[in-house]
Amino acid sequence: xxxxxxxxxxxxxxxxxxxxxxxxxxxxxxxxxxxxxxxxxxxxxxxxxxxxxxxxxxxxxxxxxxxxxxxxxxxxxxxxxxxxxxxxxxxxxxxxxxxxxxxxxxxxxxxxxxxxxxxxxxxxxxxxxxxxxxxxxxxxxxxxxxxxxxxxxxxxxxxxxxxxxxxxxxxxxxxxxxxxxxxxxxxxxxxxxxxxxxxxxxxxxxxxxxxxxxxxxxxxxxxxxxxxxxxxxxxxxxxxxxxxxxxxxxxxxxxxxxxxxxxxxxxxxxxxxxxxxxxxxxxxxxxxxxxxxxxxxxxxxxxxxxxxxxxxxxxxxxxxxxxxxxxxxxxxxxxxxxxxxxxxxxxxxxxxxxxxxxxxxxxxxxxxxxxxxx
Length: 374
Known about the structure:
By secondary structure, this protein is of the alpha/beta class. It has eleven helices and eleven strands. The chain has helices at 5-45, 55-95, 111-114, 142-149, 165-172, 193-203, 215-224, 227-230, 248-270, 318-330, 341-350; strands at residues 102-105, 118-121, 132-136, 156-160, 183-188, 207-209, 233-237, 242-243, 284-288, 294-299, 354-356. It has an eight-stranded mixed beta sheet with strand order 10-9-7-6-1-4-5-11, with helices on both faces. Helix 4 crosses helix 10. The longest helix is centred in the N-terminal third of the chain and has 41 residues, at 5-45. The radius of gyration is 24 Å and the shape is elongated.
């Protein structure tokens, strides 16, 4: 017997509170173990004749070391479960949302947009694991900030399938957590994709697009080149994120990556009849013409971007900048009633066309119960 949506939401919130308590407990145990085992280990290392060290001391150090490792494992395990329960919570809220969805079209393969942080090699513009500069949007992904920026208007909704890199990483990798925010993920089969896409487009209050060259995004943008849909679209040019280290050399590596990537996308899409503006490091949100060229635009910062300096949109201000700019651009869009997300999800799931992603807490190290969703 399945529980009602309200009961499911209450069960998830209860589980989150339980995991919060456990997480705090294991963290306290870990800190306590460090404070006790470290002095013992230091005393042990100072002994001139280790072989004559009292056995109780050796046993104590060993016991506290094992206790520390177990506490850390339990903490990480609980953290992973809590993150996935948080994702369940967001999706259950989306299932009950009375507001129209806000469709979000982007590539799931851009780490700086979906998984973060971006790591750029110091020797080239390729991704590197060493000697690299890392940058984030205030420690979060850009997608997270967009979801939070529009949360008062509705739920940000992305459409995908389990074969895409994002879903493989988020669902199948037990150590990977997808971005969590005011977002929802609709999963559809390839044969149902077009029908689901058009349903969500028509139901959406508006649509946010970050252009890319992947097959899915190009296909979606071509469909949106329609007078009925173009009036709902906001195009977002991602700003260059700020480097985590305050060195201008880092920005000289990160900014060219964003500039070259956007301009590469711009060049490729131009051959498909989609015309994007030249990249600007401050980022931009604009209303497009039918060919996706700029009709009305608004930068995320009024201060001109200079390549030799840090981005003028700081990490702490990125959320406010996106939110303010989106609200300002919406004043130029016609009012769209849309369809409540709860009604849309109910219809899509009832017709077995799509369903909300339901990520269950994975067992990272030790066991743990999952929450059965309605």
